[in-house]
Amino acid sequence: MQKTYIEKLNATPSRLGFGCMRLPTTPQGEIDEPRAMAMIDRAYRAGVNYFDTAFFYHQRKSEEFVGRALARYPRDSFYLATKLPLSLIHSLDEAKEIYRGQLKTLGVDYVDFYLLHAINGARWREVSQNGIVDFLLEEQKAGRIRHLGFSFHDDYAAFEEILTARDWDFCQIQFNYMDVDTQAGMKGYELAKRLGVPLVIMEPVKGGSLATLGEDVAAPMRAARPEKSLASWAMRWVGSLDNCKVILSGMTTEEQVEDNIATFEHFEPLSAREQEIVASVRDAIRGKQFIACTGCRYCMPCPFGVDIPGNFARMNRFAMYGGEKRLRAEWEEMVPAERADACRACGKCETVCPQALHIRESLREIAKRLA
Ligand code: SF4
Ligand code: SF4
Predict the structure, then answer these.
(1) Lower Cβ count inside 10 Å, N or C end of the chain?
(2) Residue nearest atom 8 in ligand 2 by C-alpha distance
(3) Candidate CATH numbers 3.40.50.300, 3.20.20.10, 3.20.20.100, 3.40.190.10; the one for domain 7-270
């Protein structure tokens, strides 16, 4: 199993990290413990030593289960990562209570990698003023947190603001060969590298989307390496970037565990030719997008409340990766005033869209399709 020494942290995690948010479940929705235990054991025996959980995963059951699973191994033989659920917390006292409960639930004296969960610009401004970071730094001094970082979901500007606010031990971003221009993106990767902040990567396979591409799009990958899974291409793309230290995979099946182990057991960075193949597949996927909306939001707010980029993002994701059921469920869940069918065709948005998109026509098409 490929491991990487991170000098800044004096830590040697496996490059493949076991994400414990999509463990196999029973028909009742509980963690299927015998299967999940066996998968964790298989990964551990193969050399995986980084296990990532969070307060919220598996309806708050993941931490307890992961703590129990890992308690069977020597404590210094693995790195345990978990996260403070910021969306639940609005005061220092609440943070302290949840954090202390997490150590208890996990059954450990310390956490190796502790993250502020799903931080964005607004949450960062709240957290940086309410003393939570200072409290966590005290905990780090006391040895109960080894490395302090954050997991991130927002745009590049927010990423830069948070990453440069202090000297973080590490951070976790969503990154894959399609998300090079969204969220922290490649610019965020470069910034973290420049600042010497090691990265843990989540969603390397974009929630599974890059493992199930249409065969037309995936043809160059299939032709070049017929024996390799599409997921392995996505994992290798991230793994070929040297500041992507740990690459998390939320594994649900035994097959995924085996496939990931095969990828990282004797890790092969992508060759120049393979990089070209990934770029061509990226182009092919982008070519399927419904509309070239960049999500810049210059068109917002719509005077009638339509969430223009939100409608386009959902339709683009469907056009590129499929998933009609999900698209329809999201449509049903949307506030009616924000849906494409609430557009009054006033045209205001089209006067400011830098991409000169035919917004009205496209919204009409979405509405027609989902009506
Ligand atoms: S054209 Fe439709 S989406 Fe655009 S501003 Fe007017 S009502 Fe909103
Ligand atoms: S202004 Fe145009 S590109 Fe920007 S979010 Fe609105 S529709 Fe998309």
Answers:
(1) C
(2) 293
(3) 3.20.20.100
Q: Which residues line ligand 2 (CB under 6 A)?
A: 293-299, 308-309, 312, 353, 355, 357, 359
SS3 341: helix
* Ligand 2 center–CA 311 separation, angstroms: 11
pTM of the model: 0.85
Q: Which of 10-14, 126-130, 199-203, 358-362 has the lowest mean pLDDT?
A: 126-130
d(CA 99, CA 3): 29
- Spell out the domain ranges in the chain: 7-270, 308-370
> Average pLDDT for residues 184-207, to the nearest whole number?
94
Q: Name the closest ligand to CA 341.
A: 1
The first and second tokens of residue 22, run together, are: 């999509």
Indicate if the pLDDT at residue 296 is higher than 80: no
Lowest mean pLDDT among 89-93, 230-234, 267-271: 89-93
Q: Where are the alpha helices (DSSP H) in 8-131?
A: 33-45, 57-60, 62-70, 92-106, 121-127
Q: Using a 6 Å CB cutoff, which residues line ligand 1?
A: 302-304, 306, 308, 343-349, 359-360, 363
Q: Give the whole-angstrom CA distance, residue 174 versus residue 151.
A: 8
